[in-house]
Design goal:
30% of the residues are buried. α2 runs antiparallel to α8, α3 packs parallel to α8 and α7 packs antiparallel against α8. The protein has one domain. The chain is built from ten helices and no strands. Helices cover 57% and strands 0% of the residues. By secondary structure, the protein is mostly helical.
Length: 329
């Protein structure tokens, strides 16, 4: 009777795919691809069209992601400027417009009462001023969260926007993704004006233009990195260089939109009080919605063409030269 096999004689079975290197017909190593897939989480990328927790409120169906549904043919025109009138959007437009109208009305009333004789009118004016500041604060937070929902919902290829719910504690921190880029772009614009003035050069509209250009770049970078403290993102810069013409189209449309709105607001007689507020409020809110829609559509379009995907290039650089050579039959 043969002696039982010793433990050392038994074949060693290893379940770790990395310990068993296999190469397919094309020269790819599935184990290495598996490690890379585990290291790279596409759900964290804004460019992948998948929302992050807390930035888009509510889960999107898998079929409604940017990876599964291509943008329309006229990506930077179709469904952009008529967006506030779409079903499911106009109630939010009406809500934000009403809040801004109330704030402007309180500000106008406070100014008119303060111009009168000292007395009760001044006290009422102070109350109106404090109330207007409170309404503006609430409106700003709600508008920022709504803009983020529009941007990322559009970037995910969703037809329906998941608006933030009434429990503002869950999403108030998302406003930093609007406030921080705004502060960074304004400071950069002010810094450019200061430098030009320091060297004695005419600066003209350099400050506003600098802020206008930097704001979307910084905001998309912060969203891509999931941190409101990181103003620069490599995938966003990669997309900016690779699809500069698409960025140019969106910048042009956004610039024309803002210029037209500023001109329209300048034509409104502010002395009309409630009438001016009734016209200005919905105009400002619609502009903000269209602006966010534009940049969301840019992210959707670029994600479809892999403009944000720099991981594949990094993998090719990390692979051994022997693996990159074509194999002979």
């Amino acid at each position: 009777m043969p002696a039982p096999a010793d433990d050392d004689d038994l074949p060693l079975e290893v379940d770790d795919p990395i310990a068993q290197p296999t190469v397919d017909a094309r020269g790819h190593d599935p184990a290495r691809d598996l490690v890379h897939a585990r290291r790279h989480d596409p759900a964290r990328d804004l460019a992948a069209g998948l929302p992050r927790d807390g930035l888009v409120h509510g889960d999107l169906a898998p079929a409604e992601t940017a990876a599964a549904r291509p943008p329309p043919r006229w990506a930077f025109w179709s469904g952009i400027f008529g967006f506030p009138f779409q079903s499911g959007v106009w109630p939010r437009w009406l809500l934000l417009s009403s809040m801004l109208f109330l704030a402007l009305l309180l500000l106008s009333g406070a100014g008119q009462l303060a111009s009168g004789a000292p007395g009760k009118s001044w006290a009422i004016s102070l109350i109106c001023l404090v109330l207007s500041y409170f309404v503006i604060l609430v409106w700003s937070v709600t508008a920022a969260a709504s803009g983020l929902a529009i941007l990322q919902g559009t970037a995910a290829g969703s037809d329906e926007i998941e608006w933030p719910d009434a429990l503002w504690i869950d999403w108030i921190s998302d406003c930093f993704y609007v406030v921080n880029p705004l502060c960074v772009s304004i400071l950069a614009g002010w810094g450019s004006v200061w430098l030009l003035d320091l060297v004695g050069r005419p600066y003209g509209p350099v400050g506003p233009w600098t802020a206008f250009v930097l704001f979307p770049i910084v905001q998309l970078s912060m969203l891509e990195t999931a941190s409101p403290l990181i103003p620069v993102s490599r995938p966003v810069l990669h997309c900016l260089v690779r699809y500069w013409w698409a960025w140019g189209i969106v910048f042009g449309e956004a610039g024309i939109l803002l210029a037209a709105v500023l001109w329209s607001v300048g034509q409104i007689p502010m002395s009309s009080g409630p009438g001016a507020a009734a016209v200005m409020a919905p105009l400002v809110v619609a502009t903000w919605m269209i602006y966010c829609r534009l940049w969301g559509r840019l992210v959707w379009y670029c994600a479809q063409h892999g403009a944000f995907d720099i991981e594949s290039e990094d993998v090719e650089e990390e692979r051994d030269p022997e693996e990159l050579r074509p194999r002979r039959a």
